[in-house]
Amino acid sequence: MSARSTLRALPTLLRIGVSEAVAYRAEMFVWVLSTTMPLIMMALWTAVAREAPVGPYGSQDFVRYFLAAFVVRQLTGAWAAWMINYEVRQGTLAMRLLRPISPLWSYAAENIGAMPMRLFVVVPVAIFAVSTVGWKSVPETAWGWVFFLVSLFGAWLITFLVNVAIGTLSLYMESSTKLMDVWLALFFVCSGYLYPVDLFPPVWRTLIDWLPFRYQIGLPVELMTNAHGFGDALALLGRQWLWVGLLLVISLGLWNRGLKRFAAFGG
Amino acid sequence: MLRRYLRLLGVQLRASSLLAMQYRGDFVIEGIISLFWTATALAPLFVVYRERESIAGWSFGEALLVIGWFTLLQGILEGAINPSLTGVVEHIRKGTLDFVLLKPADAQFLVSTARFLPWRSINVLAGLGLFVYGFHLIGRAPSLVGVLASLVLLGTSVLLLYSLWILTVAAAFYVVKVDNLTYFFTSIFDAARWPASVFRGVLAFVFTFVIPLAVMTTFPAEAMLGRLPWTSLVWAVVGSLLFAFLSRRVWLHSIGHYTSASS
Fold first, then answer.
1. Distance from CA of B183 to the nearest CA of A (A)
2. In Å, how far is B162's CA from the nearest CA of chain A?
3. Using an 8 Å Cβ cutoff, are B45 and B64 in contact?
4. Most CB contacts within 10 A, which of A142, A195, B62, B228?
5. Transmembrane ranges (chain A) (predicted)?
6. 3-state secondary structure of A246
7. Binary contact (A182, B52; C-beta < 8 A)
8. Which helix H or strand E contains B59, and what residues bound it?
9. Which DSSP category does B208 fall into?
10. Considering only CA atoms, which of B93, B107, B212 is closest in space to residue B163?
C-alpha cells in the first residue's frame, strides 16, 4: 500500500462517503436532531443571564456561543469507534482488510464525506446567528477564518483519532463501547459543549487546558466567535495540534498491534 | 385474563433476570458507569449555580430534586422501556416480528415486556440519594401529601415515557432504518434535567404539550416541595391517560401496516 495508491483511491472513497450520506439523509437528519443539546443549553444559559451577565457572557453572547457550538459539533462528528466495534464483532473487518488501502482511510473518508450534507444544516444556522446576534458570530478577520478552519480540522482529527483508538481496543477486549461512553461523559463535561470553559472554577481551568476535550469543541467555538487575540489563539492551536500528534501516535500504534490479534469471528 | 397477563409478566421478568445474572461482571461495570454518568450530569448544575443563588425560581437544592427525578426516570427508561422496544425495531427490520404476532397474547404487551435490565436499578437508587441530599440542603422534609402526589406523578411520568416510546417505535413500521431513534429519544429526554420554568416561548410549549418533559420531572419535584397546584396534578393524570390511549391507537394502526420483511 503505497502513498500514491492511497492518494489515488481517496477521491473515490470520499465520493462513496458523500453518496452514503445522501442515501441515508433521513437518518442523518435524526442525528442532527439528536445533537440539539447546545440549543437546550442556550435556553438555560440565556435564562441565567437574563438578570445580569455571567462572567463575560451576556444573553447575546450565550446565543452566539451555543449556535457556534452546534455548528462545530455538526462538523466534527466521528463515529468510527462504533463502526470498528461492530465490524470486529461481526468479522466484517476482514473484508476491509482485504482492500489494498488501510481501513482507517475509508472510515475517515466516510466521516468527511458526510460533511457536505451537514453544511445544509450548518450554513443556515450560521446565517441565522449572524442575522440575530451580529457579525461577531463568525470570524471577523482573514487570519481568524484560517485559524478557525484549522482548529475545526484539528477538532475533527482529535475526535476521529480517539474514536479509532477506543474502537481499536475492541480488538483487545470484547467490546469497547462502554469505554466510549465514559469518554463521552468526560467530553460533555470538559469540552465546552454544555457551557463555555471560562465559567469553570480557575483551578479546573488549568487542568482543562491540558486535556484534549476542550480542543474538540471549545477552541473552534471560541475562534469562531472571536474570543481570542492572535497570540492566544496561536498558543491554543499549538496545544490542539500537539494532541493531534499524540493521538495519531497512540491510535496508529494500537491499531497496528491490535490487527495482529484479529481473527475474524463468524464469517 | 388479567391473571394470565400477570403470570406472563412474571415469566418474562424471570427470563430477563436470569439473562442478567449470567453476566454478573457487567453489573459492576454498568453500575460504575451509570454512577459516573449521574455525576457528570450534575456538573452543569454546579457550574450554573456557582454563578447564581437561584435560577428561574429554583434554588440549588430544589433543582437537585428535578435532577433526582430525571435520574430515577432515566433508570426506568433505560432499564425497563428502552431494551424491549429497541428489540421491536430489530424485529421489524428482520421480519421476525411475525413470531411475536403469532403468539396468543397481545403483541404490544409481549414486545414491551421482552427485556429488562435489572442493573439499571442503580440509577433509581442514585435518584433517591439525590432526593435525600436535595432536601438536606433545603433544610426540611417533604410533606406526606407531597410524597403521595409525587408517587402518583411517578406513575403518570412512566406512562408518558412509555407512550412516547411506543409512538417512536410505531414510526419504525414506516421508516425502517431507525437504529438511531433511541439515541434521539435519550437526547431529547436530556432536556428534562432542568426545571421547566427555565424554558420560555416555543420550547416551553413543546416541552409541555408535544413532548411533555415538564410534566415528567418538574411536576413531581414541585409536588414533593408541596407547591404543585391540584389542577396541574389532575391535568397530568388526564393528559398521560390521553397520551397512552393515543399511542395505543397508533400502535394498532401501524401494526396493521406491518408487512413482513423476509419474503
1. 7
2. 19
3. yes
4. A195
5. 21-45, 65-84, 104-130, 142-166, 178-195, 241-259
6. helix
7. no
8. strand B58-59
9. I
10. B212
Mean pLDDT of A36-44: 85
Confidence check: pLDDT of A243 > 90? yes
Q: Which residue from A minimizes the CA distance to B55?
A: A48
β-sheet bridge partners, residue B54:
B59
The grid coordinates of residue B220 equal 413531581
A267 inside domain: no
**CB B55, CB B64: distance < 8 Å:** no
In this structure, are residues B161 and B73 in contact, taking their beta carbons and an 8 Å threshold?
yes
Alpha helices in chain A (DSSP H): 3-23, 25-33, 37-48, 59-75, 80-90, 93-98, 103-113, 115-133, 142-168, 177-190, 202-210, 218-224, 230-259
| Cβ-Cβ contacts under 8 Å, A194 against chain B | 43-44, 47
What range does the domain containing A14 cover?
3-259
CB B197 within 8 Å of CB B54: no
Instruction: For residue A37, list chain B residues with Cβ-Cβ distance below 8 A.
Output: 187, 190
Q: By the 8 A CB rule, do A154 and A78 touch?
A: no
For residues B159 and B80, what is the distance between their CA atoms, to the nearest angstrom?
A: 12
The Cα-based distances of B96 to A89, A118, B252, B262 in angstroms read 22, 34, 18, 8
Domains in chain A, number: 1
Contacts of B59 in chain A (CB under 8 A): none
- In Å, how far is A102's CA from the nearest CA of chain B? 27
Q: What is the predicted pLDDT for the residue at A251?
A: 93
Residues of B in contact with A218 (CB under 8 A): none
| Continuous segment of H or E residues that includes residue B58 | strand B58-59
Q: B98, B102, B85, B245: which is closest to B170 by C-alpha?
A: B85
Q: Which site among A51, A74, A189 would you substitute to test the B interface, given the most B Cβ atoms closer than 10 Å to its Cβ?
A: A189
Would strands B58-59 and B54-55 be described as parallel, antiparallel, or unpaired? antiparallel
Which residue among A44, A185, A195 sits closest to B194, beta carbon to beta carbon?
A: A44
Q: How many CB atoms lie within 10 A of CB A143?
A: 11
In whole angstroms, give the CA distance from residue A29 to residue B238: 33
Least confident of A102-106, A147-151, B150-154, B202-206: B202-206
E strands present in B102-231:
none
Reported as a single tens digit per residue, the pLDDT across A183-203 is 888 898 888 888 888 888 888
Q: How far is A141 from chain B (nearest CA, A)?
A: 32
Task: Confirm if A233 and A147 have CB atoms less than 8 A apart.
Answer: yes
**Arithmetic mean of pLDDT over chain B:** 82
H-type helices in B23-143, by residue range? 24-51, 60-76, 82-94, 97-102, 107-112, 121-138
Q: How far apart are CA B221 and CA A206, in angstroms?
A: 36
